[in-house]
Amino acid sequence: MFARSTQFLLALCLLFSAAVSARGFPELTDLIEQNSPAVVKINTMENTRVSRNSVPPQYQQEIPDIFRHLLEPRERQQRPVASMGSGFIISNDGYIVTNNHVVDGADEVRVTLTDRREFEAKVIGTDPRSDLALIKVDANDLPTVRWGDSDRMKVGEWVVAIGSPFGLDYSASAGIVSAMGRSIPNESRENYVPFIQTDVAINPGNSGGPLFNLNGEVVGINSQIYTRSGGSIGLSFAIPASLAQDVVAQLREKGRVDRGWLGVGIQDVDRKLAIAMGLNKPAGALVGQLEADSPAAQAGIQVGDIIMHFDGQKILMPGDLPHVVGQTRPGAEVPVVLMREGKERKLKVRVGALPGDDDAEVQASNVPATTDVGGRLGLAVDDIPDSLKQRLGVESGVLVKQVVPGKPGANAGLRSGDIIAQLGFDQVESLLDYQKIVKKLPKGELLPIRFFRGGQPTFRTIQIDED
Description:
Layout: H1 2-24, H2 29-35, E1 39-52, H3 57-60, E2 75-89, E3 95-98, H4 100-103, E4 108-112, E5 118-127, E6 132-137, E7 146-147, E8 158-163, E9 171-183, E10 194-198, E11 210-212, E12 217-225, E13 236-240, H5 241-254, E14 260-261, E15 264-267, H6 271-276, E16 285-290, H7 295-299, E17 306-310, E18 313-314, H8 320-326, E19 333-340, E20 343-350, E21 352-353, E22 379-383, H9 386-392, E23 398-403, H10 408-411, E24 419-423, E25 426-427, H11 431-440, E26 447-453, E27 456-462
Parallel strand pairs: 7-12
Antiparallel strand pairs: 1-2, 1-4, 2-3, 3-6, 4-5, 5-6, 8-9, 8-11, 9-10, 10-13, 11-12, 12-13, 14-21, 15-16, 16-17, 17-18, 17-19, 19-20, 22-23, 23-24, 24-25, 24-26, 26-27
């Protein structure tokens, strides 16, 4: 009798353990099997150009001026640099989402599907501030994924990543959401992405791949990891789908992203500052700097104000403010609640447009982005303002005001704010020079193009396939 009771209790324990296990560790095979066909592997190639001088720099000053021209860089070598990443198909006609850093600077982008089909992809648009890019392959009836609502994600939820870590095709890994709304400044110290933090194993090659919830919906795009070894240590960060959908829609429509701009420099409110400013606890974003004639200044915001709410959203940490402002459409008038000298104040702010990625004075042209704009290269260009020449250290060229998606200029990787200095083997001195050179460019040939981005010279190739 005792033995029978023991067996019964043991069976109950096993059943309870199995139930807990089933509830704690979800079944993921169907999710992975259904969504893997829409996840792609991306391989890129960049041809870097290297110049060499025959005389070391420390000895060049000893060369007479009459021979100095011989030291000009003449030997150029192309060294192809390959990289890889992941992406996912969002429409059956070939639009694919990935990270900007996966395709940035690439001369060739190739996409491989799970059925081993390969396509050459065109870059439709990139957004360095969110690290997102939209590319397209010439295909139809492709498998797709579904977007999910990342705003409803909670810490502790299970998530699944599919990608190509270290080039290992279509690998899946799972974990939980560790935190929401992580603020991680980019290389330019900008902070426009409230990242989803997870403990999913993300490694080099996973970049640009999807992060799924248990409903098989994409709730994030894997973008960054924190690591000391180069591999996963359980700290990975994904771009929320709610932000990504807006960015992708703008890239698809006009090849660029417009963001809201307030014109303030902000800092944290610690415990002592909170007491001094009349707050019960640290909260909000303290305005430490105010740009003249900015939207914030015009609305009456002052240095020393603490912004507590923006457009109805609570600002708990300073990093919350750029997230909210950046997603606000330029021109929108929104309510702002702030603390000034211990008293609450309410204002209305008309949000401005955030300047371009490369220079605060470079603004996109107001000309609609249609295939009729920009001539043979699909570029709207103008002469360079003298103030910009001095600041960037350039003497000649033309300023790119607009890039039409799918045209030769966009395929070459040009962006608004770039300065074109050479087309083919001709130097571009002015807008008139540019127009003459473009007319005589041959069709169907790869030609060198040299431009400046952020003051740094870059060589790429450009090809005109049709007039």
